[in-house]
């Protein structure tokens, strides 16, 4: 899709250069031209303040610079007018004819109308979800998977080759506690007095899984050495219980991963030994207190060194991080890796950058997206989450309660670094107060209009889009062509929450168009719009439906034909 802001920025630089060559401006360096939306629509569609930045060196008033630059602005087909506003802004208004033509352009291009090619085919891996596989996903990780999938969606629309990956960290202390707890619950289900270990997992789900395993396998795991039984139950719990549940939750949300990568393979296939050798050769491993440490302070004296091999000889979890990222960035060769982590991992970011430098990799190839946790509210009260204490709101329960679309939209509706509240009662409400319902209802209304038009024999074929001159029509088209900018902003900032705001704005503007511009005449013989105007408006509705449906799909939501 045409990137309007990019064209305007380049054209402004060209105009400044022409003004300099013509002697209208002094020869000086041209700063970056930033194109923004004006605060008021009365000022136009786009604006730049670059002339304010030029004023000091040019020794002219910004508004005079703007006047001189505008005189040299090249012809651009989508620009209807260029104006100057105090204290020195250049404002552009889109050409009405160009806007009208975008209706046909949307319909000819289809859902790829708003694609932007920022990535140029670069390979990016987005790793999200990746909860400790010690129980069903709760709402805290619901935000993780929805945010990560939204990021992957906008990057794909922005020209990147995207791989979606779930990291199953099935090695280490937490899995040991999980296995010991499951063994205890299994034995208890068979009448044995086996206590749950300290720091074990106390949720009801562990009792249920222990009983299910006892029903399926009987007493066979009580007849073998406990260590062997715990290991067998660990595998059963991981694959038959945890991952089965996680996959089902992701499927219910419409999330599909390309790869489920198991931490244990890092040790089985030798990546751990390989990275330890690299770090040792680079002088970044030190022995202290009987353990092996990664010398993060070697790169930044402000950083603390981190244990990679404990004094008991077992690798620490940072060792897995190093091996996993070596696997992603070197062995699999992704150009860019994005990890979606909870905000409680904020302190790990500097050491991850030190790890990148330690492996001889550009830190810019790794981005860590940190998100704040979610507060669940129902009946006006907050619900606390704790996996170990067993006080959980499982993601599967919430999906059943409010629906997958409401879960996705709500969890995507705030910037990742913002605290958010999930109001269960509001998510279920079928009214304009519920943004999920409001946006999807707009799509259903579009579909209903088009069905009725077909039933009544009205067609938009060969429509003359130049008849779309009503302010409500032009405003709707203006909003439709913004989707490419929204995708670009979401991709650049890894911020898919912009889609939720755009969807609500588009739904509101369509509703106003529907109110002010009758699309189909009443069945009582009302004349109203001419047949040509009706055809043009039907084309506009079709195009608006394409744009809104694309927005919904980028958020991972359904596009209902009726509600």
Element layout with pairings:
Blueprint (H helix, E strand, L loop, with lengths): L3 H18 L13 E2 L9 E3 L1 H9 L3 H9 L8 E7 L3 E6 L1 H14 L13 E5 L11 H19 L3 E8 L4 H17 L14 H14 L8 H27 L6 E4 L1 H5 L2 H11 L3 E4 L2 E4 L11 E4 L7 H15 L4 E7 L6 H10 L7 E6 L2 E5 L2 E3 L11 H8 L1 H8 L8 E4 H5 L6 H21 L15 H10 L2 H11 L3 H20 L14 H24 L9
Parallel strand pairs: 5-6, 5-11, 6-7, 11-12, 13-15
Antiparallel strand pairs: 1-2, 2-4, 3-4, 8-9, 9-10, 13-14
Helix pairs in contact: 2-3, 4-20, 5-18, 6-7, 6-8, 10-11, 13-14, 16-19, 16-20, 17-19, 17-20, 18-19, 19-20
Structure overview:
This protein has 20 helices and 15 strands. About 1% of the residues have low confidence. A hairpin with a 2-residue loop joins strand 13 and strand 14. The relative contact order is 0.11.
């Amino acid at each position: 899709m045409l990137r309007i802001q990019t064209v305007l920025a380049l054209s402004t630089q060209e105009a400044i250069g022409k003004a300099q060559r013509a002697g209208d401006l002094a020869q000086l360096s041209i700063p970056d031209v930033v194109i923004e939306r004006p605060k008021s629509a009365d000022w136009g569609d786009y604006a730049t303040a670059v002339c304010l930045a030029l004023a000091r060196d040019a020794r002219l008033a910004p508004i005079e610079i703007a006047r001189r630059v505008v005189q040299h602005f090249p012809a651009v087909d989508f620009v209807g007018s260029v104006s100057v506003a105090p204290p020195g802004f250049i404002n552009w208004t889109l050409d009405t004819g160009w806007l009208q033509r975008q209706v046909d352009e949307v319909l000819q291009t289809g859902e790829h109308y708003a694609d932007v090619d920022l990535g140029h085919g670069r390979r990016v891996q987005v790793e999200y979800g990746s909860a400790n596989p010690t129980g069903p996903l709760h709402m805290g990780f619901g935000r993780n998977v929805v945010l990560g999938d939204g990021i992957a969606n906008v990057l794909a629309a922005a020209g990147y080759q995207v791989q979606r990956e779930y990291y199953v960290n099935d090695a280490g202390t937490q899995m040991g506690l999980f296995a010991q707890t499951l063994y205890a619950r299994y034995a208890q289900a068979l009448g044995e007095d086996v206590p749950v270990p300290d720091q074990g997992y106390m949720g009801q789900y562990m009792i249920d899984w222990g009983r299910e395993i006892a029903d399926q396998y009987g007493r066979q795991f009580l007849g073998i050495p406990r260590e062997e039984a715990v290991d067998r139950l660990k595998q059963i719990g991981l694959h038959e219980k945890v991952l089965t549940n996680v996959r089902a939750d992701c499927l219910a949300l419409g999330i599909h991963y390309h790869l489920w990568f198991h931490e244990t393979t890092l040790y089985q296939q030798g990546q751990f030994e390989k990275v330890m050798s690299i770090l040792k050769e680079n002088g970044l491993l030190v022995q202290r207190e009987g353990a092996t440490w990664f010398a993060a302070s070697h790169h930044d004296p402000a950083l603390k060194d981190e244990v990679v091999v404990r004094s008991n000889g077992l690798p620490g979890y940072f060792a897995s991080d190093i091996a996993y990222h070596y696997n992603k960035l070197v062995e699999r060769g992704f150009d860019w890796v994005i990890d979606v982590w909870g905000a409680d991992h904020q302190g790990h970011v500097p050491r991850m950058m030190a790890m990148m430098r330690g492996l001889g990799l550009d830190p810019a190839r790794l981005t860590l997206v940190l998100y704040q946790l979610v507060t669940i509210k129902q009946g006006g009260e907050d619900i606390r989450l704790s996996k170990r204490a067993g006080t959980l709101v499982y993601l599967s329960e919430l999906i059943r309660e409010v629906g997958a679309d409401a879960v996705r939209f709500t969890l995507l509706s705030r910037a990742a670094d913002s605290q958010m509240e999930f109001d269960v009662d509001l998510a279920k409400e079928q009214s304009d107060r519920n943004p999920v319902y409001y946006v999807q209802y707009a799509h259903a209304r579009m579909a209903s209009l088009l069905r009725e038009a077909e039933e009544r024999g009205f067609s938009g074929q060969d429509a003359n889009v130049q008849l779309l001159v009503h302010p409500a029509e032009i405003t709707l088209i203006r909003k439709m062509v913004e989707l490419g900018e929204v995708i670009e902003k979401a991709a650049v900032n890894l911020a898919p929450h912009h889609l939720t705001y755009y969807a609500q704005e588009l739904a509101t503007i369509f509703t106003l168009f529907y109110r002010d511009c009758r699309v189909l005449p009443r069945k009582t013989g009302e004349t109203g719009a001419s047949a040509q105007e009706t055809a043009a408006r039907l084309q506009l509705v079709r195009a608006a439906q394409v744009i809104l449906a694309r927005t919904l799909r980028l958020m991972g939501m359904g596009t209902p034909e009726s509600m």
